[in-house]
Amino acid sequence: MIANEKALHDLEWGRLLSHLAARCACEDAALRCLSLPFLEDDEAWARLAAVGEILSRLREDDAPPRLAARPFAEALAHVRGAGAVPGDALCAIAANLGLYASAARYLDNRRDRCPLNAALAIPKGGERWALSLSRLAQEIESAFEPDGAISDGASPEIGRLRRRAVSLRQGLLARLDEIAERDADLLQERTVTLRNDRYVLPVRTDAHRRIRGIVHGTSSTGATVFVEPEEVVGLANDLTLAREDVIREEARILAALGAAVRDQMDEVSFACAIIVDLETGIAAARLALDLDAAAPSRAGPGEAEIIRARHPLLVLDGVAVVPATVTLRRGECLLVSGPNAGGKTVLLKTVGLFGLMLAAGLPVPADPRSRIGIPRAVLTDIGDDQSLENNLSTFSAHMRNIAAILAAARAGGLVLLDELCGGTDPLEGAALAEATLEALVAGGATALATTHFDTLKSRAQDKAGFVNAAMGFDVGGGRPTFELRLGLPGSSSAFAVAARFGIPDAVLDSAQRLLPEGVRELASAVAALDKAKHDAEIERLALAEQRSALATEAKRHADEMVRLRARDERFVDKEREALWQEIRRARERVRDAEATLKRRRVDAPGAKSARDAINAVAERLAPGGALGQGRPDELPGAPALPDDLREGARVHVVSLGKEAIVAEPLRGNTAFVRLGSARLRVPLEDLRFLGEARPRTGPAPKKPAPAREEAPDRVEAVPRGPVRTAGNVLDLRGATVDEAIDRVDAFLDAMLRDGADAAFVIHGFGTGALQDAIRRHLDGSRYVARWRPGDREEGGDGVTVAWLR
Question: How far is Cα 269 from Cα 784, in angstroms, rounded to an integer?
Fold first, then answer.
């Protein structure tokens, strides 16, 4: 994208970049923000997506670590060189590697939420050397004290050598103290001093020959001679050699650490650079958070449907901004008119800044439903470029700039022109402005221009490639509303503004009379159209409010229906459970009675008890009994045979007195039937077939099942598969793979114990890793006979339905 210095200056791009840099935690990232480059379209949209990932984390209070990286260019230059690497350079590298490790861990743990940033920070195969860099950072940090000095634990030798040097120094000072005590009368003062890195005594000039030793200088007055006594020269030499040993070991430690960094130079350089990249993106996300900004949908170059746009610098300055909604088309001019100080220039700058921000990968303060294309160029003529030095009037300066714009404009570019061709004769200026805009539109550029020329506004109303728009003005209050209204030209409202600032009424009345008739008629027509549009907008808002109220009421009714239906289903479930409990108890009493009779050890009272039990069950199952549903000849259909129980067949459940649909064919002596939302296992003897009549003597003839469309007396088959209830659903969304596998096994085990035949496992879509792991596990599970992905009504591929063994 092209944006010349004039456009960057007019749109105050530098101010916005300063706000971005202020949100950086390190100097290198701040410097990069101050010169943020404009990217190619695909790269810019990818950058926007990456910033959007971090912005989502910030909004969910899951902020990444602050990457307060230390400058690393000079440190890396030391490592690349042949000489020794200073300790502060190694410490800077270690600190940055530690930050990189923190950022890599953060992103690696959020690959599902930050895939773009994770791929940027940890390229393919990078997990291995990221761990290696973390160990290198720990090795360097352990070798230095917090103040940057090499620690005693940096090597096995360094501590010993330093202790020896300290011991020698203490011995040397102790011997000097003894000499000073002995020869106190020869000294200026009883202190030990350091000269030329040697320990000396301050001897009076007239007495220095009385102390044998090496003279290392005199005082500025000449009254004192600094003497290293001969008695301590050997000790001092030993101390010097010990210190040299320490220096050599420190140099060896630095060389070894430098070599370790040099061995991983490519990875170290990448890690240091990526910290700056990440911190720049994090700063962009922080700025977007403060602006309540978002990345819009992608449109073509020069096209935009911007919803509720706000000027970013005004938002950052704390100004209450009236949002504007504007539509731009490639090869079209939006001509904005309206009062002075009514927001026209702010609108131009807002649209221009949006183009620059998107090209730099920065979200914009507008509704995320907006669609904006990155322009191929941003060219502006905003403000007063009058130059006394170059002998240019305001009009001349504008013409020079307009000539440059016409030369640089291109298809898909954005051209912003404020008060085009103002400052000259209105008729000539309007004609020149119209011709300029026609040339830009013909070349495929998108133009956004402001004007006070009534003739230009009038011609644009019906001119192809031109769209009028007006900034709102409250005539009653005499103030602009800063709202953009598309489709109509706006009045300059010069008289209302003048009145507001104290121009006398007599002057205003005289000016009104001096206006040409055509201008007055145009102003009246614009006012009438504006009022009509305003009234239509009020009516639209009223209708929208009514629609909203109706939608709310409809939702309330729908919620009430759902509540009532759920209550009824709960009631039916309770009644159904009670009936089945009664049936189970009756069957148990029959079995007890049969067992008693089979044992044939029944006395008269026992026989009477068994007979009474059977009679009691018979009474409960008889017509009119607690569980009876009528006499057999009064029951619907005929006793069901195995061949009748095809999927979709209508049956009557005798024990419940309800009609049901066969969900699965007979298994052994039981079949699954669907009764409303419930799915029941019912024995064959409890079912009556409600299909077409058939011979009841002899075995039922076997014949192929007719197609469903050929069985008019059968209801349509219910969809294949089990019924989903609150008790047979396991929701694993958000779980890790290991957690999910453990929970699946526990859930299937419980389902099997409860006699369930199928289960629903919700894993969602996500990256597909959780879905694949669960299905692989079900393939080998001892609980599962088969499985399939969910139907569209069951949740689609985000759900797996499993049948139990």
Answer: 52
Tell me if residue 178 falls in helix, strand or coil.
helix
3-state secondary structure of 370: coil
113 burial type by CB count under 10 A (0-12 exposed, 13-18 middle, 19+ buried):
middle
Place of tokens 């010069």: 494
Smallest CA-to-CA distance from 447 within 422, 427, 466 is with 466
If phi > 0 it is left, if psi is from -120 to 50 it is alpha, else beta; for residue 374 that is beta
Condensed to tens digits (0 to 9), the pLDDT of residues 589-604 reads 655 655 655 554 545 5
Helix (H, G, I), strand (E, B) or coil at 490: coil
Q: What is the 3-state secondary structure (H, E, C) of 319-330?
A: CCCCCEEEEECC
What's the pLDDT tens digit per position in 364-382? 999 999 999 999 999 999 8
Query: How far, in Å, CA of 629 to CA of 197, rounded?
Result: 116
Tokens of 75: 């440190």
Q: Are 187 and 200 in contact (CB under 8 A)?
A: no
pTM above 0.70, yes or no: no
- Residues of the chain with pLDDT below 50 are 386-391, 600, 602, 618, 621-631, 695-720
Beta-strand runs (E) in 678-725: 678-683, 687-689
Instruction: Output DSSP code: residue 721.
Output: S
- Residue 549, classified by CB atoms within 10 Å of its CB into exposed (0-12), middle (13-18) or buried (19+), is exposed
Q: Say if CB 623 and CB 615 are below 8 A apart.
A: no
Rounded to whole angstroms, how far apart are CA atoms 381 and 405? 8
Please report which helix (H) or strand (E) contains residue 596, including its range: helix 517-599
Place of tokens 């210190």: 243
pLDDT in tens, 625-644: 444 444 455 678 888 888 88
Token couple for 425: 């004769």
Q: Strand, coil or helix: what is 784? A: strand
Using alpha carbons, select from 334, 325, 291 the residue that is nearest to residue 305.
325
Rounded CA separation 556/564 (Å): 12
Give me the amino acid identity at 789.
P
Q: Which residues contact 767 (CB under 8 A, 6 or more apart)?
A: 111, 112
Percent helix, strand, coil in the chain, to 5, is: 55, 15, 30
Indicate the average pLDDT of the chain. 81
Backbone angles phi, psi at 333, to 5 degrees: -115, 125
